[in-house]
Design brief:
There is one protein chain. By secondary structure, the chain is of the alpha/beta class. About 50% of the residues lie in helices and about 5% in strands. It has helices at about 20-25, 30-40, 50-55, 65-75, 75-95, 100-110, 115-125, 125-130, 135-145, 155-175, 215-240, 250-260, 270-280, 310-325, 340-350, 395-405, 440-445, 455-500, 515-535, 535-580; strands at about 15-20, 65, 180-185, 190-195, 195-205, 330-335, 355, 375-380, 390-395. The strands form three sheets. A four-stranded parallel beta sheet has the order 7-6-8-9, covered by helices on one side. Strands 3-4-5 form a three-stranded antiparallel beta sheet. Helix 15 links the parallel strand 6 (about 330-335) and strand 7. Helix 5 runs antiparallel to helix 6. About 15% of the residues are buried.
Length: about 575
Amino acid sequence: MGGVEKKKYERGAATNYITRNKARKKLQLSLADFRRLCILKGIYPHEPKHKKVVNKGSTAPRTFYLLKDIRFLLHEPIVNKFREYKVFVRKLRKAYGKAEWTAVQRLRDNKPSYKLDHVIKERYPTFIDALRDLDDTLSMCFLFSTFARTGKCHVQTIQLCRRLTVEWMNYIITSRCLQKVFLSIKGIYYQADVLGQLITWLVPYQFAHNHPTDVDYRVMATFTEFYTTLLGFVNFRLYQTLNLAYPPKLDSKDEAELRAENDEEYAMDSESYLEKLSALSASLARVVSSSEEEEVELDQFPAEGEDVEQLEARQKEQLQSEAHKKIFEGLKFFLNREVPREPLAFIIRCFGGQVSWDKSVCIGGTFDVTDETITHQIVDRPSLDKQYINRYYVQPQWVFDCVNASLRLPVEDYFAGVTLPPHLSPFVVEKDGDYVPPEKLRLRALQRGEKPENAESSEEEDDEEEDDEEEGSEDEDLDEEEETDERNLKKMEQQRAQGKALPVKVTAGKVKAENRARSEQEEKAEEKRLAIMMMKKREKYLYDKIMFGKKRKVREANKLAAKRKVHEETTKAEKKKKKAKK
């Protein structure tokens, strides 16, 4: 029977994909505009399963997109705006060439622009979806906010990112939802629990930027354009949930205090207001004043399928989280000039503490160094000329470690000039069989309420005791060995002189008690061995893989423990040498 001839590459996977060049021609866009559109709409290339079939028999390297995604872009209003902008640039160039300055001004006034509001609503149907995708948004906005005003990106973008990040930090301070902090080589990692969603972001250190040449800043700027719009929406919604005014305004009382302290003209009103907000030392104004709000204590009822024990456990967790939010409550901190102001002020305010700094550092300081109610002064130099008796002088790491430990750690280990303990990552969760450093064990003991002895003093005492014991034991061993040798020699000489052989004795045998626990273990081991023998080939392969992974973990833990042992031995040897020199 005759039929329609089937042609190659006209059905199946070959028709589901389209190359980048074809997609660009279909949309009538340049490569740069096509990239921008794809970034804004969240459309990315796809790697086909059978690349040769999709490529119609060719093996040339090509970028493929899903055809349905490109069809989806055909009706996007931003595409028309891109075309209008091309026409605008062409007309502007012509007007400049003809020196028609009135036309130039008219064209600049009517410059085409577009908004991304509909794209945000389209990509994030619910607010929780937007919060889940906020990690990269915050990291990029914090990065751009630290850029110098060079020609790499627009000044307006840098200013917008700075404003949005300051708004975000003020929200975190007001809601007190910060959970973890970690100082790394890349920057400072923060993690906050916002409406039940864990959000982690990275803030770079305030160093001078050396812009790398191998980075395409246009692509980064396109991502930032989308992220700033998203963060603006999120900030507005979050401020509403806390009954805060948006755009954020300082509380009238705090604003009056700041004005009284900074009577001199610091900068323009708009700039000084942003500076005061970014100081993070003042509370924000609310839509409804706090006196009108009524704090109602809600009754606790067990959820469906929840026992009384589960309810109690949940209540205990809530109490712990509430206590974690008030770590620095009632404490007053003063920051020295040499410490990083913004991260320390942000963290201290997040956990209920009051913070200030010298007026020459930044606007927004609320009290001077001479204030006698200051409890802690954060310093990062070995010694100070003038010290007050009624306050602690600690290094900045104490603040970060207290947050991660969920309690106020002893300040003795963090005094000025003291060698600091290791800064442990709160993002590492040890499982069974993993290596746990001794500092982590000591921290867990503190969290349980135990009071472990100071590690350094105990180590020194152990070293001294070991030295004394070694000396005494060596003398005793030598005396005992000499005595036993003399006795044996005397016996041998007597037997040889008499010519007698050693007397042979017959002793009754003793019944060995059977160790039940050991026999049970042996039986279980034998059963396990037989079960492994009876496994199928596929199951045996999987079991071997699992066991290999477990053994590798044990090997890694042992290697780390051995490294730690070597490190401790070297430090002990160095301490002994120092003592000997003294």
